[in-house]
């Protein structure tokens, strides 16, 4: 501590006006520096000394300048120190490239993640008074929440006292016709309070008003400027003004474009849409279904806590109105801050990335600190000579600081292209999070990177400053004589830095190993289907033309008949969703023979509407009972098929066949009967269970369905004729999300794969740096201890024992670092819990394997210095002494 205080005092002295003694020392220092430069240029020593004195006016002019313009001289000296530092780096290119490159990697990764954090979390939302905007959910526990229903929204609109505006949005896609061919666009059907809730105005035209919501008002839509240009072309104008007042046909209904949004507005409340058609809500006869995203803007005098009380009061008024079909009295309408909803999961992801990049930066700093320390030890005589020529401790401090700042800032400059490459990788393969695509290396991030680099430069200069300023000239020369290494203190610091590198690397390598295990496990998950030779496409029937289940069912009866007639098609079926994700399509139910207590939440399961051919196409086995058939039409009693896991959960050790349930809380509806059990299909993601319920399309219908086609060979070969058959039935019908089912399943592991690659990349860098660190320390130690090793060999030590000596020290350092790293990893890997599958974040086998691997890497890194030590010739070393 006393030494650090002394260094701090010397640093403060850099900025004080010099006294006479300081000027004498300063003069001598600069003459010596100039003399060294001239000798290096080829001049004889005497001539170099004479010219150096002349350049400073024999000392008198220099002293006068020091008295009258010390600030100007300070800046000139700083420039001189920078030039000297750059010349020193040129004279040691291996050190310069290694140190600057190492810093560039650590600082570049830091800059990339810092830019991502700024874009995702720090940048303000594009809404005025964003902290007043909330999203409202139903919630029956701290961890369970879901979207709202029409009944909820109408209750909020009629009874709320906390909001200046509320809106409900139903997301989906709509068929846009009127162009060369029908296309699907992203649509956010919203109630009239949408734009006032978010405080957004149209760039051209207007937004919704209350009169637009009246039953006799014509359909209207607000669109993005991009859609205006794409659909209306040049007629829209550069700013989209030409689109206002024109007609746009969405789902075969003419909508009048009343407004065009500014180009930067493509998302509202986290919902991205090309068009925002006005949605009108009608009073429902039941509480569900739930699928509305509801937002509200708080009144200026209302807190979120007060709004929660208001919404709970509304929940209590709604429950008795819909109790016959909604049994969950514990469900309450609850407001959440918009920023929390948008960035809650992103915060976890960025925390993991930030932790990884900080560990890499610290490993890089430890590595460079070791290099700088070795360099400082090697320049002790040079420092002592400068001191003898008159350079004071303040001057030496300034020179050491300048050299390390120059080194770090060069690393910071080189880090900028590394950061750009890192951001490109995050854009392409980073974890899914809002606004990540907007992350860029702007001027603020560049300045922040350089400031961090400067701080790193000061940090890596601390021990060299202690080493070069703590002792006098004689002590500096005695601190490392020919019979010893660089001194026990310096050696301890070097060892400590190596231990720190391995301690920091182990959590990263452990995290990468856990993610790799998780990723490999996901690749071998049994989804429950055979995805080979299957192509799928989503089709949505416009309600204006079809509009009821009978019309929908008739279309699909015709369509399936035409599709299976295509040469090469083996079977075709329908499903409302495809594995491994049904996009949240679930339904609550109550078993007749074991109902939940009154007022309690009913269980819910993934609920998929299918035709019987879907099971055949996906090759899902029937385990008990029967499949759907022609008996299960719209006039027959409701029937269901359940998965094996569902049956084992709700009827363990019993047959579920013939059991009945009330679905969706509809007590007035006929009871549904289970007629079959099929194999599990993972509809809750690859990491979810195979639990699921299947309902017949003939009884449920549905405007949006997935057409599943199994081909005899190449599934892409049947795409064109299948498309032609569908268009023959309805020429204006666009097809969406046409994809091979195998590609869909492969895409489900994209996020785990990206996590593995990112954390694995950081871990690989940290491991390489740690290995280089122990290699450098052991190489330096062997070089410093050549005489000692030579004496050992002369006294009878075998080369093998010398190798063991070097390996023993290196492995001991790695083992000590690994032991510390295990403690840190036990806490750090818990951050990965949300992305791990089939493995615990504290898996003992993984920890043991990683620890042994790091020690093995250290062993390999120490082997070369050990072999070099074993080949030392004792006679030449001792004779040279």
Can you characterise this structure?
With 881 residues, the chain is of the alpha+beta class. The chain is built from 28 helices and 24 strands. The strands form four sheets. Strands 1, 2, 3, 4, 5, 6, 7, 8, 11, 12 and 13 form an eleven-stranded mixed beta sheet that branches. A six-stranded mixed beta barrel has the order 16-17-22-19-21-20. β1 (133-139) and β2 (145-146) form a beta hairpin. α5 (70-91) packs across α13 (393-429). The longest helix is centred in the middle third of the chain and has 41 residues, at 338-378. The relative contact order is 0.10. Mean pLDDT is 82; it is low at 10-20 and 476-486.
The largest pleated sheet is described as:
11 strands, mixed
Question: How helical, in percent, are the residues?
Answer: 40-55%
Distance between the ends: 38 Å
- Radius of gyration from CA coordinates: 37 Å
Structural class: alpha+beta
* DSSP summary, beta strand count: 24
Poorly predicted runs: 10-20, 476-486
Please count the helical segments: 28
Mean pLDDT: 82
Sheet-strand content, in percent, reads 15-25%
